[in-house]
Specification:
Blueprint: E1 9-16, H1 22-38, E2 42-45, H2 52-61, E3 63-66, E4 77-80, H3 88-95, E5 99-102, H4 106-120, E6 124-128, H5 134-140, E7 148-151, H6 154-159, E8 168-172, H7 178-191, H8 205-217, E9 223-227, H9 233-244, E10 250-253, E11 269-274, H10 280-291, E12 295-302, H11 314-317
Parallel strand pairs: 1-11, 1-12, 2-3, 2-4, 4-5, 6-7, 6-8, 9-10, 9-11
Helix pairs in contact: 8-9
Length: about 325
Amino acid sequence: MSPTSDSASLTVLLASPRGFCAGVDRAIQIVEACLAKYGRPVFVRHEIVHNRFVVESLEAKGAVFVDELDQVPDGAPVVFSAHGVPKAVPAEADRRKLVSVDATCPLVTKVHNEAERQHRGGRHVILIGHAGHPEVIGTLGQLPEGAMTLVQTVADAERVVVPTPERLAYTTQTTLSVDETAAVIETLRRRFPAIVGPRREDICYATTNRQAAIKAIAPQADAVLVIGAPNSSNSRRLVEVAETAGCRKARLLQRASELDWSWLEGVDRLGISAGASAPELLVEELIEALRRRRRVSIEEVTVAEENVSFRLPRQLVA
């Protein structure tokens, strides 16, 4: 269908990088490789990534998503999600002799390793992150109870009480707002001058790049749409970054079919991005929907080139 004769022109500022990161791509490949190796069904503990389109696509291929291991039959293959899991989960899988495959993003594993290293060094660890997020649950579960304290905000950092102020370290969730996390770290360093941070920043390259791209387009846009799931931390941060960067009209959208067209009234320049777990197909779907109603021109705004890739687990490539 061509645009209506009275449709206004619309410039789409397309953020780049956007969409799938290397960790998400690897996690999806792991489920597909497990299906190829072990056959249907392959069980997956929790959503492999936070995107219903991806989850439903894998379900159609034979993946079965469960909340906990007690829903997995004995001896069956089970994949752990890209967000990471507490140590107790693979231990239970081993006890039950399940065929377990770990799809934890290597950059999340880096955070786990950093926390363990600091704990072995006798430091109490502060984790900066969002309570209840699967990645945070997984990271907290790497250390004994009480060895790590969760801090979510600057206000939390101002009042947190730690057992060993002179032996303290911090690490962070990988999908946080870069600017907000910097403010939390600054507060912790002011209060605890001896605190030790990671050798390399924990917020992952994909989160950083996607937020930088949103910052580049937001001041030029009348509105910004971010394609992603409501439970996707990195996608929700993109909406917040757009608002902070100067575009007060920003919204999270799972699919084009959810778009409230009245929301776009008066919008001549629309910024579009996608969270790290949203496939490019959904971006294309949105642009096609826009083309059916408006005369669309595309301006791609690129702030970084990404060529990161992660290997599959050895058990799937042998």
